[in-house]
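User: Hi! Is it possible to get a structure for several chains at once, not just one? Here's what I have:
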Amino acid sequence: MTTSPPNDPWSRPWRTGFKAAAGVPALGLFFALTGYGAMTQAGDMDVWVMLGSVVLIWSMPALMTFSEVAVVGGGIWAMFAAVLFANLRNIPMIVTSLPLIRTERRPGWQDFLFAQLLSPTTWLHSLMDSDRIPLKSRRSYFTAFSLTVFASALVGATVGYFGVEYLPAELRPPLLILTPLYLLLIILSVRRLSGYLSLVFGAAALPYLMAWSVEWGLALGGLGAGTLGFLIGGGLRRKASS
Amino acid sequence: MMMDIAWILLLVGFAAAFLIRATGVVISGHVEPETPLFDWFACVGQALVGGLMVRAILLPTTPLAETLLADRLIAIAAAFLMFFLAGRKLLPSTFVGVATLAILGMLRSL
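Assistant: Yes, the chains can be modeled jointly so their relative placement is included. Here is the combined structure:
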């Protein structure tokens, strides 16, 4: 039997996770969601729908997609397809983070809860920090981490929604660039040629294809641009050599 | 009426989002991160998200459209410059972009 040292941070993983997230990670989500709150307010979205979207969808790309499709008047199928595809990147995030925190082999209900709370910020930290955290403490640590940034995001969205009215008129439009810019920079943080190419192809194709059809333009543009970026970026070649 | 439609769209969005997350949970442990299929999913996701974000900036449907396209492009360039020159820091780079757009807008309104 092992005992923890008196100041062992992993004896209280919830507290340690909260403290780790309470700095820059929470601030980043706060400001990112401030932009989302301001954007939905500008689009005349009801505040409870906005907060509900943060709680239920909880993924910046999917939230932006939800807002965009709702604003352009897309239907149920368009919304389902758009959020589904915008959330695709959550699959690799979940697939790569759960094995790092799971102590059981089979997925349990805790895994679904963790997956619902997972954000790119938590995912990146799980990849970076798991090695230094005892396995038995990881789920508590990263759940606390996730809940902290989640709470910060909710506050940020509320501040953005209501606070934007008190800003000078000249400052309101610039705030609306915050969220898409933040997400573009997050994508650029992933240093992989195929990822960069996919971003460029998607940026070139999607706006035009979505002018033709919101749902089909999004689906076909994303699949086509992503596949093109993957192939030209050496996705197959890279694996063949590894 | 409009609010009802918004709630329905939200539930549809939640169903789609949860389906993806549940799929991730189910296949976790069965798919190796370093595989072509894994990378392809990531590429499609980045193309989708990147395309939507660029669309939100270049063809905005919000009051962001009140700003000049040239100013938005300068703001993006300033943010990217900060990002690549200052150690890929997300927050400062984002703030530089927002501040640049705000300053350009204020200068033009003088």
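The CA atoms of residues 39 and 61 of chain B lie 32 Å apart. Residues 2-27 of chain B form the longest helix (26 residues).

User: Great, thank you!
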